[in-house]
Amino acid sequence: MARTSGDDMSAGATTPAARAEALIRRYFEACNAADRAGLIDCFTPDAVHYFPPGLPSAPWRSAEAIADGWVWCVKTLGSRWTIEKVLAGADGHEAVIEWTHWKTSVNEVLRGDEWYIFNDDITRIIEIRAYYASPVNKADRVNSLHGFDYAGRGYHLDPPTPDLD
């Protein structure tokens, strides 16, 4: 099941794969909104988010640590995220996505993948393992796969606009 960002995923998703995808999309919405309570609600209390080497304090262990990390990124780096592709297993217990992380305050873009593991009833994320498309090179404004046609494949080329109250 692959969708591009912006496709509607009803709250009443009925298949396990649809519930997994809906939970991932809810998580990204909470990230973009810097919604700490919403982020915590997406995870089991003992959830773990793993990252490639180089991120201080990684891995992030606990729903609260994950929420605090992403809220900090939004407030400090101007972070915004888009989901490019989603593939969820038929049983809904695992999924993989491609994403783009827009760091608008520091003029950087990072692309990568994440592997998700969900609890039994697919209401919370237990674990995320992040993989970057390329090693982070601070000299490059956009970190992505060399020679990959992001525009031609329909990937986002600009960050989403923040919702302003």
Characterization of the model:
- The protein is α/β, with parallel strands linked by helices and 165 residues long.
- It has one domain: Roll (Nuclear Transport Factor 2, Chain: A), CATH 3.10.450.50.
- It is built from three helices and seven strands, in the order ααββαβββββ.
- The protein has helices at 16-33, 36-41, 63-77, and strands at residues 43-50, 60-61, 79-88, 94-103, 108-118, 125-132, 142-143.
- β4 (94-103) and β5 (108-118) form a beta hairpin.
- It is globular.
- The model is unreliable at 1-10 (pLDDT under 50).
Q: How would you describe the shape?
A: globular
Helix content: 10-25%
Cα-atom radius of gyration: 15 Å
N-to-C order of helices and strands: HHEEHEEEEE
CATH class group:
Alpha Beta
Instruction: Tell me the CATH architecture.
Output: Roll
Largest sheet: 7 strands, mixed
For this structure, the CATH topology is Nuclear Transport Factor 2, Chain: A
Number of helices: 3
Structural class: alpha/beta
Give the N-terminus to C-terminus distance in angstroms. Answer: 33 Å
Number of domains: 1
Instruction: Provide the low-confidence segments as ranges.
Output: 1-10
Number of beta strands: 7
Mean pLDDT: 88
Strand content: 25-35%
Domain SnoaL-like: 24-121
Protein name: Nuclear transport factor 2 family protein
